[in-house]
Amino acid sequence: MTVSKTRMGQTRYTKFMTLPNFGVLSVDDGVDTNTTFIDNDNSNSRVGLTMTQALQNGSELRLTFEAGLGLTGSSAINGSDDSLDVDYHRTELRKLELAYRTPNAGIFSFGQGSTSTDGSAEADFSRTGVAAYVGISDIAGSQLLRFADGSLSSVAIGDTNGSFDGSRRFRVRYDTPVFNGFSASVSYGQEVLSSGNDNDYTDVGTRYVQDYGDYSVDARLGYSFRDTSNDLVMGSAAVLHQPTGLNLAVSAGRKVAGDADYAYIKAGITRDYIAAGETSFSVDYYDGNDFVVAGSSTSSVGVAVVQRLDAYNTELYATHRSYDFDDASASYQDLDVTFVGARWEF
To answer: How far apart (Å, rounded) are the C-alpha atoms in residues 78 and 152?
Structure first.
């Protein structure tokens, strides 16, 4: 819901947002199959409030609040505790920031919000991100893999992969204006919502967004400096052919001082097959190396479909993903995940 009013020649906008996102998740670890109703951690259920004050000099001041509902998410369940519960922690706070946007000097932000590398690995025109994207562990991160003999290992899906994409922290951030499609940002901050983390985080991100006739291009690159000297570099690029809806996205990243790295590719199509709204399909492949232990290999294949219902501000989605992990010391069974759900906004 959006409310606007004019006061002394200045316009103030207030936007309220509620975004529930639930589904039925089924996990097959090679021995057992568990099915549960759960929140979707690809884009968790949340509420938000944005207040924007337009200023007379063409600038604007924006206050943003956004928080998850504290519901058990798909990345948290593990087969032994699969219930949908409410357990709110302060880490559910996603954004609490004040931003000052100027006509010619860019944007200055302060508070809890995205670092400059948040989204650097996620360039994607497929419109299936609610079901499948480069963060492949968000729907099964706590699931334990089974050894070839059927016994449970201590290796969780979330340990075997990563996108190295940036996060949200308490930070100061500056974004440049856009020049011919190019923009850049830099941020500095700390983790204040989780205890035991006193590291400083300095992030630098760049982005290029442009249309070339029937094609749209989105390219991103980010570098995250860490106190632990384990810096991260990540980047992504996506292209969309507007008349056909065909799209392609690639992403890659690595730990600069370590060995872990990955590459990801995703192909999709979005078309108006039915009057209710657009339909999007995608298939993706993830390949990673040296997660958990040196010499290990990770692969994952996912397919997804998202159907928009424009009249109800709703997306219906279904996805299936298979995970494979190997290292020199043990053999593991594949893990398969199927997720069917809906996200709606009001």
So the answer is: 11
Instruction: Tell the burial category of 302 from Cβ atoms under 10 Å away from its Cβ (0-12, 13-18, 19+).
Output: buried
Model confidence band, residue 3 (pLDDT cutoffs 50, 70, 90): very low
Asked whether the whole model's pTM tops 0.90, one would answer: yes
**pLDDT recorded at residue 8:** 44
79 Ramachandran zone, left/alpha/beta (phi>0; psi -120 to 50): left
Cα separation of 113 and 20, whole Å? 20
Element of type H or E holding 303: strand 297-309
Rounded CA separation 139/174 (Å): 32
pLDDT number for residue 258: 77
The Cα 146–Cα 75 span in angstroms is 17
Beta-bridge mates of residue 268: 247, 282
Q: What DSSP string runs through 87-152?
A: ---GGGEEEEEEEEEETTTEEEEEEEEE-TTTTTT----SS-TTT--S-TTTTTTTPEEEBTTS-E
Give the H or E element holding residue 61. Answer: strand 60-68
The angle subtended at Cα 267 by Cα 261 and Cα 271, nearest 5°, is 150
Q: How does the average pLDDT of the chain come out, rounded? A: 94
